[in-house]
Amino acid sequence: MMSEFLSYGFVQRGLLAGSLVAVVCALLGVFLVLKRLSLIGDGLSHVCLTGVALGLLTQTSPVYMSIPVVLAASLGVLKIMEKVKIYGDAAIGIVSAAGLALGILITALAGGFNADLFGFLFGSILTVDKTEVFLCAALLCALLLFLLFFYRDLVAASFDEAFAHTRGIKVQRLNAALIVFTSVAVVLAFKVVGIFLISALIILPPVSALLLSRTFKQVLWLSCALALLSVWSGVYLSFVFNIPSGATIILINLLFLAGAFVCSRLGRGYAKKGKKYAD
Amino acid sequence: MPGAIEAEHLSFKYTRTLVLEDVSFCIEEGDYVGLIGPNGGGKTTLLKLVLGLEKGAGKIKLFGVLLADFKEWQKIGYLAQKSPVSQTRFPVSVEEVVLMGLCYDNAHKEPTLANLKEVYRALTQTRTRNLAKRIFSDLSVGQQQRVLLARALVSKPQLLILDEPSAAMDAASREMFFNLLGELNQKHGVTILLITHDTGEVGKYISKFMYIDKELVFFGDKQAFCQSKKVAEKLGPFAQHTIDHLHNHGHCPLGCHCDDVHGGVGHYAAHGAEAAHGGSEAQTTEKSAGNTGAGFSAAGADTPASAKDESRTAPAPQPDAENSTPAQTADGGQQ
Q1: Which domain holds residue B273?
Q2: For A54-68, A140-154, B290-304, which range has the lowest pLDDT when averaged over its residues?
Q3: CB-based contacts of A54: which residues, under 8 Å, 6+ apart?
């Protein structure tokens, strides 16, 4: 069964793209969750709908059309946060609502919903082409280089932005870079899990990892591992039971989160008992 | 020689609300400045402007260099009022948090042995060495503040900027904290700018006061603070005079003695004024008078035991009635 599953080219491409996107989302998610910007994935994924609708309207690739649209929206979020001085979640909400409204309007003008749009909304990992796999790999390489060079600055800025600034760290530039990476990741992820579920791929693995880890590096590794495991098992289960892959991936992540919660509670319980006996 | 902080015509407003207007001052190297003022008076905003965390009108220089061009951030130590992650689990150890206070040449470099030595020196200074391997967010708020002070001190800064940092600390930690700051200032010449309401405990070390209430009301040494008419208008003469008394262990720079002024209940009356000013609680101050070398201790020794007992049972004195004499003397002296 497994060899048959892996023998298909579209399955191989889907798994590869899914794995690359999962790692990108898991890494970015750790910083976004700790900076309380985790809903940015949700907001920007709604903006994807505008890009997808424009792509379908102009008969161009929805993925390529979405990249500039979502990038512009992400910069809009940053500007609103900086200039209008409102909370980050409100800025995300504003851009998200605008993206969703525009997307629905353009879709209606283009003649309503169709099967293509349905695939983008709920994910169609097995339709990923070679160029998209290449884009996912390029994004992951760029992100790894970024983390390699700015790891300490990112951790310091995630921990305490004001203090990081007093160490000479360019906090605003780091935030902008994180959001730009997220916007590209969101676009490339909507084929894997669908527009509605992208934010879950950004939030769930890091939150599970945060419950189980004691160091920042552990969180990054564990978040990647959980994301990869969820994509592989999700795609396989969707193939075997003929169920939607995006939703399966997210439900598996939710199971991981429940498991992580139970483990962390048990761990705390044992630690308390140990301390009691030691006393 | 340039000042540690030079500010010229600083103004700042949030949307339409004016927070600071035309504030200019120069803090010399080696100064220990207590920044006081009412809530919403612009104290924290002023610190943020000085650190470049907010952008307003006017010019700021740090050690003679314009803020926009300032690069030597290791010279600055900053400690905010609240811990950044008191409610959330952030997976970094105390040791890693203090390491963040060091400026690395390359962001991705691993810490060296010398870096770690500095970290443990700073942790020892703030008596948090035993917490080094603990997860920062698992600590109590008071412990977190002490660790964050270690982070501010790890780069051996020449200028410490502190935003009401002792609010969450217990009495012993606060005493350690202010004694450490005093030592850094007096022995190592570290310049300190401190927002505080704890004028009682910190007062014996402060060399200058800055009073901000949207504008710069006062900036100068303690004696001038006691004599300032402007401060008297803002604070009321009682609080103005008694804050100064706290710092001079009962001896007013103008020559009057606490016992003369307040009829033997000077320090407890002064404490009442401090509380009215928004300061520390009566019990804390009283405790520190008995147990510590800070704040009231010298005055406590001067005051007769009977007077102390009397003061404990005496009702809080009325500011106007109690302080009319010294305030008038002060103003009269100035005129």
Answers
A1: 228-334
A2: B290-304
A3: A60, A62, A65, A69, A106
Measure A15 CA to nearest chain B CA, in Å.
Answer: 31
From the list B48, B78, B84, the residue facing A159 with the nearest CB is B84
- Give chain B positions within 8 Å (CB) of A168: 71, 73, 103
- Asked if B85 lies within 8 A of A153 by C-beta distance, the reply is no
Residue B95 to residue B137: CA distance in whole angstroms:
12
The answer, for B231 touching chain A at a CB cutoff of 8 Å, is no
B62 Cβ contact list (under 8 Å, min separation 6): B4, B5, B50, B70, B75, B76, B159
Q: Which residues of B touch A34 (CB under 8 A)?
A: 88, 90
Architecture of the structural domain at A2-278 = Orthogonal Bundle (1.10)
Whether residue B260 is found in the same domain as residue B236: yes
Q: Is residue B142 part of a domain?
A: yes
| One domain for residues B21 and B161 | yes
ipTM over 0.90: no
- SS3 sequence of B195-225: ECCCHHHHCCCCCEEEEEECEEEEEEEHHHH
Number of H helices, E strands in chain B: 15, 10
CB contact under 8 Å between A149 and B15, yes or no, is no
pLDDT tens column, A122-163: 777 777 888 889 999 999 999 999 999 899 899 999 999 889
CA distance A132 to chain B (A): 30
Cβ of A165 within 8 Å of Cβ of B53? The answer is yes
Q: Which of B155, B184, B213 corresponds to the end of one domain? A: B213
Question: Do B206 and B64 share a structural domain?
Answer: yes
Same domain, B178 and B69: yes
Residue B223 resides in a domain = no
User: Which of B145, B178, B213 lies at the terminal end of a domain, its last residue?
Assistant: B213
When divided into structural domains, chain B yields a total of 2
Query: Is B222 inside any structural domain?
Result: no
Tokens of A67: 């990249």
Residue with tokens 């992400």: A74
With H, G, I as helix, E, B as strand and everything else as coil, classify residue A192. Answer: coil
Put simply, the answer to whether A162 touches B53 (Cβ < 8 Å) is yes
Structure confidence by residue, pLDDT tens digits, A177-232 = 998 999 999 988 887 778 777 888 899 999 999 999 989 999 999 999 999 999 99
For B180-208, the pLDDT digits (tens) are 888 899 888 999 999 887 666 667 778 88
